[in-house]
Structures are given as C-alpha cells and as structure tokens.
C-alpha cells in the first residue's frame, strides 16, 4: 500500500514538472511588446502605458522619424535596431513577442515582418507614410529623382534637403541622400503593400484603419499578409491620431487571445 502511494506521488510530481517546463505563455509577464510611435512624435508608442498597466513588458524606442532624431539613420539600420530589441526581449524571457506601431510605426512593423520572422504577433494602428503615393501624386517626385541621380553619381552621403509629409502637414528637413531614399523611395522598404506581400510567416495581425485611411481599405495591406485565423481587420471612425485609443479594447482582447492561445 505504501509503495503504491509513493508511486502515485512520484507520477504526480513528474506531471507537475513536465507542465511547468512547457513554454506556454499564461501570464501578462510572458508577453513582451515593442510599440513604435508615429512620425514627428516621441515615445511612448501606441497604448504603451495602458499595456504596462495590464502587466505586460513594454519597450517604446525613440524612432528615427521622431521630432528629435530627424532621420539620423537609414530605414535598414532602424529595422536592425528593432531586431536587437526583439532579441533582448527573448533573452529576458518573453515567450510571446508582439510588435506594434502607429502611423509610421505601423509602417516599420510591416517592414520588419518583410525581413524577420521572429515575432509572434503584430498590431498596426492607422498605418502611415506612403512613399509610393507621395511619388505618384507629384509630392516627392522631383526630390526622389534628384536623390537617385546623386546616388548614381556616388554622392550617397551628401546632405539632402527635402519636404516631409504628415497628414496634410509639411516640414522642411535634411538627411543624407541614401538615408532619404531609404524612407522615400516608392519601391523601397517603406512601401507597405510591398512589405506585406514579402512577409513570409503567418502570424496574428491586428490591423486598424482610421477614418483618414478608410479609402485604402482592407486590400491595401491586410489582404496581402499571410492569412492567420487570429488576425483581425478593424475600421474605426476615429481620426488618425485617435485610432489607437479608440480601439484599445479590441487591441487588449487581441493580445489576451494570443496569451491564451
């Protein structure tokens, strides 16, 4: 009888040990988020404070398009910097990593997904910065063509003046030729439909299109991403700036779905 009791207890402890070592994410602390702010903004990224209050690990880096950095590194280097943050979260124990962004930050999420397959979910709030449309509408055509000519002439490090566009606002800025083209080339890394089409890994994606972007619709980005049963597309009447706050409940539910999946 005592031997039978010891055997049952032994099996019980083996059962507990086995399941305690599985890499299930079952608490908010198991999720790490990198949330990227929009053009001319500053950290924190979209909903960062609210997600922190829910217990998630949140990183909100200062992006190159912020009003204090002014395109100081190329888009390619920026993606590598985000990759380092993803690796840091993984090393520190995050079992699920979500990359999210608002406006230009959402653009960066898509650019990242076109290069790396090491995150487990993505959130796109009012995706912005559309270099292919800037070019086609004549807003950046002269500047892009001039920068391309300078690049061909070997002047990639020349200081280059340009006009930046942000929700019907303009700002005169400077960057090197190569850095400017990395963000404004209509066929480059900032082309969101292209990034979505190049994404290889099917992961859950929450895509929020605000009233300012509704004309772009589902097919602009969302339909080009690899389909996933947990992905969601939402249209909100909120403005471009208010889109994250207006869809916080939906975003929180999306994250909890990944936590419990």
What key phrases describe this protein's structure?
single chain, 261 residues, alpha/beta, Rossmann fold, six-stranded parallel beta sheet, two-stranded antiparallel sheet, 11 helices, 41% helix, 18% strand, globular
Q: Mind explaining what this structure looks like?
A:
This protein has helices at 2-20, 48-53, 75-91, 104-113, 131-136, 141-152, 177-184, 192-198, 217-220, 243-246, 248-260; strands at 31-36, 57-59, 96-102, 121-125, 159-166, 169-176, 205-209, 232-235. The model is unreliable at 1-8 and 10-24 (pLDDT under 50). It is built from 11 helices and 8 strands. The chain is an alpha/beta fold and 261 residues long. The radius of gyration is 22 Å and the shape is globular. It is 41% helix and 18% strand. It has a 6-stranded parallel sheet with strand order 2-1-3-4-7-8, sandwiched between helices. It has a two-stranded antiparallel sheet with strand order 5-6. The two termini are 41 Å apart.
**What is the H/E order?**
HEHEHEHEHHEEHHEHEHH
What's the CATH first level of the domain at 27-129 and 190-260? Alpha Beta
* Rg over C-alpha atoms, rounded to the nearest angstrom: 22 Å
Which geometry do the CA atoms define? globular
Helix content: 40-55%
Largest sheet data? 6 strands, parallel
Spatial strand arrangement across the major sheet: 2-1-3-4-7-8
The H-level CATH homologous superfamily of the domain at 27-129 and 190-260, spelled out, is Alpha/Beta hydrolase fold, catalytic domain
Second-tier CATH architecture of the domain at 27-129 and 190-260: 3-Layer(aba) Sandwich
Number of strands: 8
């Amino acid at each position: 009888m005592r031997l039978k009791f010891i055997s049952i207890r032994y099996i019980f402890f083996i059962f507990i040990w086995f399941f305690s070592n599985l890499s299930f994410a079952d608490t908010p602390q198991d999720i790490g988020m990198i949330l990227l702010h929009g053009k001319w903004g500053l950290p924190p990224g979209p909903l960062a404070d609210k997600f922190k209050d829910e217990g998630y690990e949140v990183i909100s880096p200062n992006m190159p398009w912020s009003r204090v950095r002014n395109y100081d590194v190329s888009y390619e280097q920026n993606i590598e910097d985000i990759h380092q943050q993803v690796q840091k979260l993984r090393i520190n124990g995050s079992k699920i990593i979500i990359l999210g962004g608002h406006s230009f930050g959402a653009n960066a999420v898509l650019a990242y997904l076109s290069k790396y397959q090491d995150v487990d979910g993505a959130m796109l709030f009012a995706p912005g910065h559309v270099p292919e449309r800037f070019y086609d509408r004549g807003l950046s055509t002269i500047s892009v063509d001039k920068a391309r000519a300078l690049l061909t002439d070997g002047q990639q490090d020349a200081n280059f003046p340009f006009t930046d566009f942000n929700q019907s606002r303009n700002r005169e800025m400077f960057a090197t030729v190569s850095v400017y083209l990395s963000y404004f080339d209509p066929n480059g890394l900032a082309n969101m439909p292209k990034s979505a089409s190049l994404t290889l890994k099917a992961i859950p994606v929450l895509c929020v299109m605000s009233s300012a972007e509704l004309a772009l619709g589902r097919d602009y980005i969302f339909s080009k991403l690899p389909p996933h049963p947990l992905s969601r597309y939402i249209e909100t009447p909120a403005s471009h700036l208010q889109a994250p706050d207006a869809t916080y409940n939906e975003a929180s539910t999306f994250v909890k779905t990944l936590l419990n999946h």
